[in-house]
Write a structure and sequence with these properties.
This protein is an alpha/beta fold. It contains 12 helices and 6 strands. It starts with 6 loop residues before the first strand and ends with a helix.
């Protein structure tokens, strides 16, 4: 098992720029290993949780990709609804604050639907897969159980990356310099342990990127989300939670 003193955890709803946040952390000289959404297959394929443990213990070695590694730190990036019942086990792997990345739910849900459109799949999905229900419960768990945590908004770290991300790394006791904000594209790198083969539209943008990109997306109106099956009401509820969590965010 990786040393909890050198393990760092990010959790977010899907499409919250958490992979871009992780990509930034790859550049840190103290972080050598990366486990990308180890609970993905556990959730979608209903396989044994030991597969997630194996994905963590056999994390990607970033040294051949990034180079310049001085430490042996491990970064685990997970999606809130994929962790679900295993959340407490996940956060016990770290002695550092758990970082929750958030983004306006109107953007996260519309982005997820856009990916489904590109994959030529139906645009509907279970509401739990917006990730907001589990995110709220996980943050409440941290509050109730005195688990150190921090909330970071993608708008903040994409608009003012040096200021916001330096504070986040400081909370983890990691060094920061502005050279970490840019990188070489890695378009051939595969991240998902669930989707195999072809173009993975979930990660195309970040793997082709060369650094933290400013937010330019237009927030869609709530009326763009159909009322059928409770989607609009759910997004409205998530928007209330987002406003509340922004008040508690690191900034």
């Amino acid at each position: 098992m990786h040393d909890p003193k050198n393990t760092y955890v990010i959790i977010s709803p899907p499409r919250s720029a958490s992979t871009a946040l992780a990509r930034f952390i790859w550049n840190n000289p103290e972080v050598r290993y990366y486990s990308h959404e180890p609970y993905e297959s556990v959730y979608f394929e209903n396989i044994d949780v030991e597969n997630a443990t194996a994905a963590i213990e056999n994390a990607v070695d970033l040294a051949p990709v990034i180079g310049g590694k001085d430490g042996a730190g491990l970064l685990i990036k997970e999606i809130s609804f994929q962790a679900r019942a295993h959340f407490a086990d996940l956060v016990r792997r770290t002695e550092h604050p758990v970082v929750f990345a958030i983004r306006d739910p109107r953007l996260t849900v519309s982005s997820r639907r856009q990916v489904k459109r590109l994959q030529q799949q139906p645009l509907t999905f279970p509401l739990v897969e917006t990730g907001w229900q589990d995110l709220v419960e996980q943050i409440d768990y941290c509050v109730a159980n005195d688990v150190p945590h921090a909330i970071i908004d993608s708008v903040d770290f994409r608009s003012e990356p040096a200021t916001t991300l330096a504070k986040m790394l400081a909370a983890w006791g990691l060094p920061f310099d502005e050279s970490q904000l840019s990188w070489q594209p890695q378009p051939e790198m595969a991240l998902s342990n669930h989707r195999q083969g072809g173009i993975d539209h979930f990660f195309t943008r970040v793997l082709n990127s060369a650094g933290i990109e400013p937010p330019t997306e237009v927030v869609p109106p709530l009326e763009d989300f159909e009322a059928e099956h409770g989607l609009r009401a759910h997004v409205a509820w998530a928007l209330e939670q987002y406003a509340r969590l922004r008040d508690a965010r690191m900034h």
